[in-house]
Design brief:
- With 207 residues, the chain is an alpha+beta fold.
- The protein has one domain: Alpha-Beta Complex (Inorganic Pyrophosphatase).
- The chain is built from 3 helices and 11 strands.
- A 5-stranded mixed beta barrel has the order 1-4-5-9-6.
- The protein starts with 26 loop residues before the first strand and ends with a helix.
- The model has no long low-confidence stretch (mean pLDDT 91).
Length: 207
């Protein structure tokens, strides 16, 4: 018999209706918007919670890993203050890239991800960090604790994707990608994004 206390009558909003994770900032939930097989940039619609077509990818490169966001996070003033030259956060949920050994070819899934590091990105002068995590129970990557334990080539592939995914030949990129950082700073970014979210939305969620 189904326990009605754990059943949502309506689909919860993936940003506001899903917990941040089992043990943040170490172990978080990731809501996946894009897979490495997607030629289209999808993004959660902030009003409905469903995936909306944002745009076709402008270049031939595809995301090198699962890509989405951490629920109940918000890149506001605290996240912006952690990045030199940022005028603030990008006012979106905190992005996360999840590494898994087995290909996952569908989006709109929720998974447990262990935070191991991140990549700082400035987009239009706003902080747009990309947290890097590994699938919690992954056969190959589950024991990784810090970004330094991942292959350099994998990190460079992620950095290259984000440095070029908005650019076209003969056009400059509107983003600046910095040097990767390890787990300690990444967890600080996650904690700041949780605090920014609570400041921005908690009075709406609990009202």
């Amino acid at each position: 018999m189904t326990d009605s206390s754990s059943f949502f009558r309506w689909r919860p909003h993936p940003w506001h209706g899903v917990d941040v994770g089992p043990n943040p900032p170490d172990l978080v939930h990731a809501f996946i918007e894009i897979t490495p097989f997607d030629h289209i940039k999808y993004e959660v619609d902030k009003t409905t919670g469903y995936l909306r077509v944002d745009r076709p990818h402008r270049t031939s490169s595809l995301p090198p890993n699962l890509y989405g966001f951490i629920p109940r996070t918000y890149c506001g003033r605290r996240v912006g203050a952690l990045m030199t030259q940022a005028k603030g956060g990008d006012e979106d949920p905190l992005d996360i890239c999840v590494v898994s050994e087995r290909p996952i070819d569908r989006a709109e899934v929720i998974l447990n991800a262990r935070v191991v590091g991140g990549i700082p990105m400035l987009d239009g002068g706003e902080a747009d960090d990309k947290i890097i995590a590994v699938l919690e129970n992954d056969i190959i990557w589950a024991d990784i604790k810090d970004l330094s334990e991942l292959p350099d080539s994998l990190i460079e592939r992620i950095r290259h994707y984000f440095s070029t995914y908005k650019s076209l030949p003969r056009e400059g990129s509107p983003v600046t990608v910095g040097e990767p950082y390890g787990r300690e700073h990444a967890e600080h970014v996650v904690e700041s994004a949780i605090a920014d979210y609570r400041e921005k939305f908690d009075h709406f969620i609990t009202a």
